[in-house]
Amino acid sequence: xxIAVIGNDDFVTGFRLAGISSVFESEKELDSEIEKAxxxxxxxxxxxxxxxxxxxxxxxxxxxxxxxxxxxxxxxSSKGKETNIGEMIKRSLGVDLWK
Length: 99
Hints:
Blueprint: E1 2-7, H1 9-17, E2 22-25, H2 30-38, E3 43-49, H3 50-54, H4 60-67, E4 72-76, H5 85-93
Parallel strand pairs: 1-2, 1-3, 3-4
């Protein structure tokens, strides 16, 4: 199972450095980048910038994301205080994906 990250260049850079290879930059068209990520069956977790997710108000893509069981969508605020992505996923899912 892979983890994908969707966001602007500043947001995804740290995830790239951490070794996450499924990165979709949303500088262009957020909807199309989300659709690309959803087409990859091996992706189980999608991490998105909270501001980008909230910008999808009333959008058909957001409606689709809200109904999905897999992949799990995790939003992270760029202003957040959390630094350990593993702990955030564990708290969100209730499962440690790295064990």
